[in-house]
Design a protein that fits this description.
The strands form 5 sheets. This protein has a 6-stranded antiparallel β-sheet with strand order 7-10-6-2-15-14, covered by helices on one side. By secondary structure, it is an alpha+beta fold. The chain has helices at about 10-25, 35-50, 60-80, 85-100, 105-125, 130-150, 155-180, 210, 260-265, 355-360, 370-380, 385-395, 415-420, 425-440, 490, 495, 525-545, 550-560, 565-585, 600-615, 625-635, 640-660, 665-685; strands spanning about 205, 220-225, 240-245, 250, 255, 290-295, 310, 315-320, 325, 335-340, 400, 425, 445-450, 455, 460-465, 470-475, 480-485. It is about 50% helix and about 10% strand. β14 and β15 form a beta hairpin. The longest helix has 25 residues, at about 155-180. The two termini are about 50 Å apart.
């Protein structure tokens, strides 16, 4: 094959380029601006017109003007969409504009190479199984376009078939390297490709979690590793997925304390150290532990999820002093990490003066009625634990209601909620309990995260959605450390015991703004079963491909090799490389092995063999036309139909083998040849 880059582009290549253009750019629509989408649309429609022969190639001045206009527009909006998105749009526009101006095969090669780069860029942000299958199909088509540059054929499927063979031949080597090659950390960190993402925020006001309950997006999935082989996790009322700890309150908004924010900023350079519980004969805290793997969806944040008290052996995960898990890099792609939780561990048996002061602080002149109520509880219940229990019972005894659409509150938010509205959701009740407890002299803080999870029995894992976002409180007692109290359980116990769906109607909450969510299928048992089957496949993909860590690798190698050693791994690689090289060499024709006979020759020779049984032999090297003349002379009088059909068969054979034909002529001759072949085969059998 040679580089004939000055040759005009064939219609076969142009056809597949039309399909590739749409397939490559479609997954990037989320990063493309309206201006970029408009230019891409113009370029595609114009190229369709060129393919159909309706318009000529655009003048270079027009393409140059579009490029300059697009560059200026991106420069103006880059501060709004982010630098990375601006660069992605620049690459998309370059691809589209080069696509519209291409005239020679050298241009096709440039477009194909940029297409590979865009496919890789898309894979960084979209790694689900369906997206990967889609991008694999796009890669096959893009490779077929590149093959057509060197090996143009009239049959549109020929280059695509060759491309598929190349991809399939490369898969064994890719799988081998994936399983055996050491797991390396990222060579660089991929910046945030999205400007916003639904999820928890590092600030919480009364309306934030209420908004999340209208989101059906998946937050993360969890698979438990129980010693008995069971995939069931703790009961729903124990599934409190700790995400953020809020200690500062200004009367309107809960925020993280600046000290923990400073630790988060320095975590990449100085990792915080929080030791996992050790076996202690005096305590039983370390005996109960829960092992599980979390697969987080892209949140573009650094906080992670875990049950109390959580530890991870992932190099990219650190354990912060407020008992949270924190990622060293933003979760811009699906991220899997293993966690071990010790639910019976005491959190902060001793409380330092600074932490105590932070968790007793209240804004001045804020919510005087609630402050007074807290002081009254302190007077009536001197024992801190009895005091908190009384506060919890207060919510159950008074006429409070749990709702996702609470009335508005004024400047004194908690006072309005406690004494006027008496209706709210988890953030209202958690805020009120923290405020009362602090006013009574007990260190208390708010924790936000998720509560519960949907169990998928097919694959044995839990799905946690954004609408499961929740807020609760932690109270510090002398000798007991931080203890969890959830006032929501006093108002709406089913919300905690059985999950969000046991309390609220999905149609009026998380499905209201998600008309195309697959969670609509939950209403129909057989559709819900189908939904969970598809979700199971995607979960296995996340576990065994995206989450293929060193532990998974060792499990696979142990099944293949038994005792894993460097020698056995080296022998496996050498043996696999030899097998792969032999297969590729065979398909490349390096072994001089007779390949399967061409179907056209095979059918023609079969008819010749049956004629030989009738006494008409084809001599070695005899031309098809000469042999047809001999057959015609022998059968013209006895079986004129056989003579006529074989003459026509020979003419079709010669045309297909030796004459330059158009695609339409080739198809016509092939159909004619097959019809004559079938007819002659039957006639020669009967006679």
């Amino acid at each position: 094959m040679t580089d004939n880059f000055d040759t005009l582009i064939s219609r076969n290549t142009l056809f597949w380029l039309l399909i590739t253009n749409v397939a490559i750019l479609t997954p990037l629509y989320g990063q493309a601006t309206l201006w970029s989408i408009g230019i891409c649309g113009i370029c595609f429609v114009w190229r369709v017109g060129i393919y159909l022969g309706k318009v000529a190639a655009p003048p270079k001045m027009l393409v140059t003007s579009l490029a300059i206009g697009a560059a200026i527009t991106l420069a103006l909006v880059s501060s709004q969409i982010g630098l990375l998105n601006a660069l992605v749009n620049l690459l998309i526009l370059g691809y589209a504009l080069k696509y519209i101006e291409m005239r020679e095969l050298r241009d096709v090669k440039a477009i194909v190479l940029v297409g590979y780069f865009l496919i890789g860029l898309t894979l960084l942000d979209q790694q689900s199984m369906l997206n990967t299958v889609h991008l694999l199909a796009v890669t096959i088509i893009n490779t077929g376009v590149l093959i057509s540059v060197y090996q143009d054929k009239s049959n549109k499927m020929a280059n695509l078939s060759f491309s598929l063979k190349i991809i399939l031949q490369s898969l064994p080597l890719a799988i081998l390297l994936f399983v055996v090659f050491p797991r390396l950390g990222p060579l660089w960190l991929v910046p945030n490709m999205n400007t916003a993402k639904t999820g928890l925020s590092d600030e919480v006001s009364f309306g934030d979690i209420s908004k999340l309950t209208r989101s059906a997006d998946l937050a993360f999935r969890v698979g438990f590793d129980n010693p008995n082989g069971s995939t069931l996790g703790p009961a729903n009322q124990e599934l409190y997925w700790r995400t953020l700890v809020m200690e500062n309150y200004d009367g309107k908004t809960w925020r993280q304390d600046p000290s923990i924010q400073q630790i988060q900023r320095q975590a990449y350079f100085t990792k915080p150290e929080r030791q996992a519980p050790k076996n202690d004969a005096k305590t039983d805290a370390s005996s109960k532990k829960i092992a599980y793997m979390v697969i987080s969806e892209p949140s573009h944040r650094k906080w992670l999820y875990g049950l109390d008290e959580a530890f991870s052996d992932n190099d990219q995960v650190v354990e912060l002093a407020d008992y949270r898990l924190f990622s060293l890099r933003a979760v811009d792609q699906r991220m899997s990490y293993r966690v071990t939780s010790y639910p019976d561990t005491i959190m902060d048996l001793k409380l330092d003066p600074q932490t105590r002061q932070i968790n007793l602080a209240l804004p001045a002149n804020s919510n005087p009625k609630t402050r007074q109520l807290g002081l009254q509880f302190a007077k009536d219940y001197p024992d801190p634990q009895a005091r908190i229990n009384a506060m919890m019972n207060y919510f159950a005894q008074q006429a409070y209601f749990y709702t996702l659409s609470p009335p508005r509150v004024g400047e004194q938010q908690i006072d309005d909620f406690m004494f006027e509205n008496r209706a709210g959701f988890c953030a209202h009740y958690a805020s009120a309990l923290v405020f009362m407890a602090r006013a009574s002299g007990i260190p208390t803080r708010m924790v936000t995260g998720y509560q519960g999870g949907e169990y998928n029995a097919n694959a044995g894992y839990y799905s946690v959605y954004q609408y499961m976002a929740h807020a609760w409180t932690e109270v510090w007692f002398e000798g007991q450390g931080w203890q969890r109290f959830d006032p929501t359980a006093m108002i709406a116990p089913q919300r905690v015991l059985d999950g969000f769906d046991a309390t609220f109607d999905s149609q009026s909450s998380y499905l209201q703004d998600s008309p195309f969510s697959t969670l609509h299928m939950k209403q129909y048992p057989w559709l819900n079963e189908l939904r969970q089957q598809f979700a199971s496949v995607d979960y296995y993909w996340s576990v065994w491909v995206l989450g293929f860590d060193e532990q998974r690798k060792q499990q696979v190698l142990a099944k293949l090799l038994g005792d894993v050693s460097n020698t056995k791994i080296a022998l496996l690689m050498i043996f696999s490389f030899i097998i792969i090289a032999l297969v590729i060499a065979y398909y490349a024709g390096l072994f001089n092995v007779d390949r399967q006979q061409d179907p056209l020759n095979k059918r023609y020779n079969l008819i010749c063999q049956r004629l030989a049984k009738k006494g008409i032999f084809r001599q070695q090297g005899q031309a098809p036309s000469d042999y047809a003349a001999a057959v015609n002379a022998h059968f013209n009088a006895l079986q004129p139909k056989v003579a006529a059909d074989f003459t026509a068969l020979s003419n079709a054979f010669v045309a297909l083998k030796y004459q330059p034909l158009t695609a339409a002529q080739t198809q016509q001759q092939q159909q004619r040849f097959i019809q004559l072949y079938r007819r002659l085969r039957l006639r020669l059998l009967r006679n």
